[in-house]
Please model this.
Amino acid sequence: MQTLTSLTPLQKPNRLNASQRERSPFRGTRHKQGGGRKHNFKKRAGGKGNFNRHDAGCKP
Model:
């Protein structure tokens, strides 16, 4: 079994395409629990941020 030629970096099972990575539900979360974009709510238009987490002390 040729492990040197069969395991090229482009053929890794954990290497995803850019299109598959963008559609992943784990994208944007710090831990893999799903839920989509959690960390950039304040950057989006009209986003209040997630106040039940690290923004609990600075509510407006």
Q: What stands out?
A: The chain has a mean pLDDT of 53.
